Amino acid sequence: MGKKDQERFKDYPVFKGLQKPLEFLGLKGRYIFWAAGAVGGGLLGFLIGYILLGFLAGLLLLTTFLGVGGSMIFLKQHQGLHSKKAPKGIFIFARSKSY
């Protein structure tokens, strides 16, 4: 490239952090949405329990939703963000079709 091309095309900084997963308060990637669902479900459970059965039932539903949701998120996030089911065992292929 000549000097004219360098003057015409300006350099812009490129954000290099796009390959990292989204992280918020220690939660990574899809588990942010799981946490939002657990909190939303807990609040909805509290409201329904409070209206139908009283304060203690609503509080019990809230703690249940948050506890189960939080423990599921913790366990799944500990396995890894892109956890896949790996087949266990030894597989023997007896035949193969050849074309």
Automatic annotation (TrEMBL):
Keyword vocabulary terms for this entry: Membrane, Transmembrane, Transmembrane helix
Naturally occurring in which organism (per UniProt): Segatella sinensis
Pfam families in the record: DUF4133 (PF13571)
Domain of life from the UniProt record: Bacteria
Membrane-traversing stretches: 31-51, 57-75
InterPro entries: DUF4133
Name used for this protein in its record: DUF4133 domain-containing protein
